[in-house]
Task: inverse folding
């Protein structure tokens, strides 16, 4: 599974693609079962150059019955600042946040690696 992520230009917020719009919560992100549909969404996301920057797909793993980013970097981006449990997106709590916190894996997202190679 994959999800599409980027950073919003006006405030730098990490956002995720959900059926034609950018959302702030990973739990609300649209999940893609194959590369073809993910790449189609990536193209659609890149068509909004005045809204977001650095659009790329991230790899996901199953964690506690929900999906979470495979790479540690992407889990941090999805949780928000980790300096204190009451800051950022992690302060909301809930099953989706717990799945992000307990997910394992330290691999780089293939989408991020491809983005780095293009630069």
Result:
């Amino acid at each position: 599974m994959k999800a599409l992520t980027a950073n919003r230009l006006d405030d730098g917020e990490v956002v995720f693609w959900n059926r034609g719009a950018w959302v702030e919560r990973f739990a609300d992100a649209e999940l893609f079962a194959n590369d073809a549909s993910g790449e189609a969404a990536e193209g659609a996301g890149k068509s909004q150059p005045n809204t977001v920057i650095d659009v790329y797909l991230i790899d996901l793993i199953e964690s506690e019955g929900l999906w979470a980013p495979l790479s540690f970097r992407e889990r941090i981006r999805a949780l928000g600042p980790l300096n204190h449990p009451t800051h950022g997106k992690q302060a909301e709590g809930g099953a989706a946040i717990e799945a992000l916190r307990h997910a394992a894996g330290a691999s780089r997202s293939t989408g991020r690696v491809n983005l780095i190679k293009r630069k």
